Every structure is written in structure tokens, then in C-alpha cells.
């Protein structure tokens, strides 16, 4: 005899959202805190949110997780524990997708995924490819845009092809370093100092070193290689760091750009500091958001147009945060695009939209609506 669904379940027409967070990358704790922010803000009248954590091993956990309590201001960074009974997704013959337990039993359907994983194995197109193969809509950029947006080398190539100005850089691949590290150092060291040495496919300022003289370059490359065997070395650019949030348009409508924001990092007299992990996530007393950034109106509109061009240069969809330098001689130099920016309480992306007139909870609903509208497959 078939069981009759409870009246509450039968009447619940809310789309079921898989809130996916954690992951295998070094940005695991940031992803956990981002999930807490989205979980607090999601409109439960519209969305049935199911949090699922990805442990460091890559296994998915639907165990009892106190996601809402995740913070970065405690003694220990938040972590998804290894699950005793991992869960997974399964596509059904009727085209629906469900969350399944380790024993194969169903944990209910999934209508759309909000993948809050940052860095490799989450923001780089790998998960997006899985969602595409399952036919499951998801928030954010597709496979190509996610992969290009994760790789600082190919990102810059795409920007250049779209006519955007990028700063001087050199890439050191794993093969370069294995064959002739001295030649790689000489090539990178020919750029104008100070240099910023970065893992090519990481974020949240992990593994980034500011180098002021040639003697420090090798150690900086080795530090970046702890996070990624491919390293990008960028010449320092004199200018203000200005960011702009981009949100996709509905249907054939153009993407939308927020008012620009500028992070001001306080530091002791005589000390130079860049916007590092601590400034971004743990020490809010050293940073302040200025939004809209203090710029002439014509420069604000120019930047918003350039941010949309950068978003479209990587074939973006859903959302992206575009970071620029505004030089003293009035040039806009694009630094990077982040295809899954953080949603922590102090993150730039939601804060810029908040000050542009779109609230945090409305922004989340807008992103989910866009994902369901876009669907999957070629567009």
C-alpha cells in the first residue's frame, strides 16, 4: 500500500535548494561561513533549504551540522566532519534529481543547487560539470566560465582578448619549475617590483606573497606552490583597488553592475599592507568598505560597463565580482573576476548590492531564480 504524503509535504511547493559548502580546497572554512550567511538570509517562505557539507575527503555529509553557528572569529576554523554515512546525488529516469543516503534510500528531490564552494574542486568547473551531467540547475557560472575564472593566467588572456587592460604578469608552470627554475625566476624577476606572487588557481589570499626585492622571489614562489603547482607573478600596480559586483540579467537582458566599492585597509604608519586573508575575514577593525567608492560619476559608470565586459569576457552567468585598479593617470586595469564570491557578513559582493538597493535575502532569491530560469545545457 502506498503511503499518502503528509498534508504539509503535499502543499509545500517551494523549490528544494541544496546548499553545498565545505570542499577539498584551502578555502574550506570560508565556504562554511558563507553557507552560514546564506542559511540565515534565505527566504524560507520561498525556498526549502537543505544544507549538505563536503568534507576534506570530498565525501558529502547530511549529518546533523550546526551550520548556522559557523564563524571565523573563534579559536578554531569551522570544518565539515568526515561523514559516517555519506550522501550523494542521483538522476532518475523521469529527469528529476534526488539526494540519496548511503544505503540508497531517497532523502528527497533537489530542484536547484547553491554551490558555495570556493577554490579548486568547487569553483573551478568540476562540480559545475557534474551538475550539468545530472541535468540539475545551479547558481553561478557554467563550466567554462568557472574554469577560466579560477585560473589567473587564462583569465588574463580572456580579458586581453576582450580589449580590457591587464597588468604585466608572468606564469610559472609546474613544468617550468621542474625544468629550469632559475630561468623561471629570471623571467618573473624582470617585472617591476614590488611583485605579487600568487597560486594561479586559489583565492581568499591563501599563498600570496608581496615581494619587494629579488632575494625574496624564490621563497614566495615556493609558498604559492604549496597551494598550486602553477604560479602567477604580477607586477605591482600603483592605484586604488576598486571592486564591482555583477548580477546576470533575466532572459536576453544585459547583466547588471552594482555601485563600485573600495576596501580601505588601515595600517600602522610606514607599513604597507595588502588586502590579505586576515583583513578579509578575521580582523574587521582594519578594514572599511566605501560604497559607492569616491569617484567622479563618469568613472563610476565607466567602471560598471567594464565590469560587465569582464563578466562577459569569461562567458559569465549568474554572478561575479570584478576587481580593478584605478591608476593615478585615470586608467582602469582589471585584476581578476571571482565567479563565486563570498557571502560572509563582511563580504564585498552582497555588501555592494545592499548599498545599490538589493537586500541580502532578495539577492539570494534572485540568484536562485536566475539558476532555475537558465537551467542546464548549451545556451
UniProtKB/TrEMBL annotation:
- Superkingdom: Bacteria
Q: What is its EC number?
A: 6.3.2.4
Q: From the UniProt record, list the reaction(s) this protein catalyses.
A: 2 D-alanine + ATP = D-alanyl-D-alanine + ADP + phosphate + H(+)
> Could you name the Gene Ontology cellular component terms for this entry?
cytosol
Q: In which pathway does it act?
A: Cell wall biogenesis; peptidoglycan biosynthesis
Positions annotated as active site in the UniProt record: 27, 204, 347
- Co-factor note (free text): Binds 2 magnesium or manganese ions per subunit.
Localisation = Cytoplasm
Needs which cofactor? Mn(2+); Mg(2+)
Report the InterPro entries cross-referenced here: ATP-grasp, ATP_grasp_subdomain_1, D-Ala_lig_Van_CS, D_ala_D_ala, Dala_Dala_lig_C, Dala_Dala_lig_N, PreATP-grasp_dom_sf
One of the entry's Gene Ontology molecular-function terms is: metal ion binding
Keywords, alphabetical: ATP-binding, Cell shape, Cell wall biogenesis/degradation, Cytoplasm, Ligase, Magnesium, Manganese, Metal-binding, Nucleotide-binding, Peptidoglycan synthesis
Which positions bind Mg(2+) 1?
A: 323, 336
Give me the residues that bind ATP, please.
Answer: 152, 196-198, 204-205, 234-241, 335-336
Q: Could you tell me which residue ranges the ATP-grasp domain spans?
A: 156-369
Family to which this protein belongs: Belongs to the D-alanine--D-alanine ligase family.
Chain's role? Cell wall formation.
* PANTHER family the UniProt entry points to: D-ALANINE--D-ALANINE LIGASE, D-ALANINE--D-ALANINE LIGASE A
Protein name per Swiss-Prot or TrEMBL: D-alanine--D-alanine ligase
The species is: Micrococcus luteus (strain ATCC 4698 / DSM 20030 / JCM 1464 / CCM 169 / CCUG 5858 / IAM 1056 / NBRC 3333 / NCIMB 9278 / NCTC 2665 / VKM Ac-2230) (Micrococcus lysodeikticus)
> What's the source species' lineage?
Bacteria, Bacillati, Actinomycetota, Actinomycetes, Micrococcales
UniProt gene name: ddl
Amino acid at each position: 500500500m502506498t503511503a499518502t504524503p503528509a498534508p504539509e509535504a503535499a502543499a509545500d511547493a517551494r523549490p528544494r535548494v541544496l546548499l553545498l559548502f565545505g570542499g577539498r580546497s584551502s578555502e574550506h572554512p570560508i565556504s562554511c561561513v558563507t553557507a552560514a550567511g546564506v542559511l540565515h538570509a534565505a527566504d524560507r517562505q520561498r525556498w526549502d533549504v537543505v544544507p549538505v557539507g563536503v568534507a576534506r575527503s570530498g565525501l558529502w555529509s547530511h549529518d546533523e551540522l550546526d551550520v548556522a553557528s559557523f564563524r571565523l572569529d573563534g579559536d578554531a576554523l569551522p570544518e565539515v566532519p568526515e561523514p559516517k554515512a555519506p550522501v550523494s546525488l542521483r538522476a532518475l529516469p523521469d529527469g528529476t534529481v534526488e539526494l540519496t543516503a548511503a544505503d540508497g534510500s531517497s532523502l528527497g528531490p533537489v530542484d536547484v543547487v547553491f554551490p558555495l564552494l570556493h577554490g579548486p574542486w568547487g569553483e573551478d568547473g568540476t562540480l559545475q560539470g557534474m551538475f550539468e551531467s545530472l541535468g540539475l540547475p545551479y547558481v553561478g557560472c557554467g563550466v567554462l566560465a568557472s574554469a577560466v575564472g579560477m585560473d589567473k593566467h587564462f583569465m588574463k588572456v580572456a580579458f586581453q582578448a576582450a580589449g580590457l587592460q591587464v597588468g604585466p604578469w608572468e606564469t610559472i608552470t609546474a613544468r617550468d619549475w621542474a625544468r629550469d627554475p632559475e630561468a623561471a625566476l629570471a623571467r618573473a624577476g624582470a617585472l617591476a617590483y614590488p611583485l605579487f606572487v600568487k597560486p594561479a588557481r586559489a583565492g581568499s589570499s591563501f599563498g600570496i606573497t608581496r615581494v619587494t626585492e629579488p632575494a625574496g622571489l624564490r621563497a614566495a614562489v615556493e609558498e604559492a606552490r604549496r597551494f598550486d603547482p602553477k604560479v602567477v607573478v604580477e607586477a605591482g600596480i600603483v592605484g586604488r583597488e576598486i571592486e564591482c559586483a555583477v548580477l546576470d540579467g533575466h532572459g536576453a537582458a544585459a547583466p547588471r553592475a552594482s555601485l563600485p566599492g573600495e576596501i580601505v585597509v588601515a595600517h600602522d604608519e610606514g607599513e604597507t599592507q595588502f588586502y590579505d586573508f586576515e583583513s578579509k575575514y578575521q580582523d574587521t577593525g582594519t578594514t572599511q568598505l566605501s560604497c559607492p567608492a569616491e569617484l567622479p560619476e563618469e568613472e563610476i559608470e565607466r567602471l560598471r560597463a567594464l565590469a560587465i565586459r569582464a563578466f562577459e569576457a569569461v562567458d559569465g552567468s549568474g554572478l561575479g565580482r570584478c576587481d580593478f585598479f584605478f591608476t593615478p593617470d585615470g586608467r582602469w586595469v582589471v585584476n581578476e573576476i571571482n565567479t563565486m564570491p563570498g557571502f560572509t557578513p563582511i563580504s564585498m559582493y552582497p555588501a555592494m548590492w545592499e548599498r545599490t538597493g538589493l537586500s541580502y535575502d532578495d539577492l539570494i532569491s534572485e540568484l536562485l531564480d536566475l539558476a532555475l530560469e537558465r537551467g542546464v545545457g548549451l545556451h
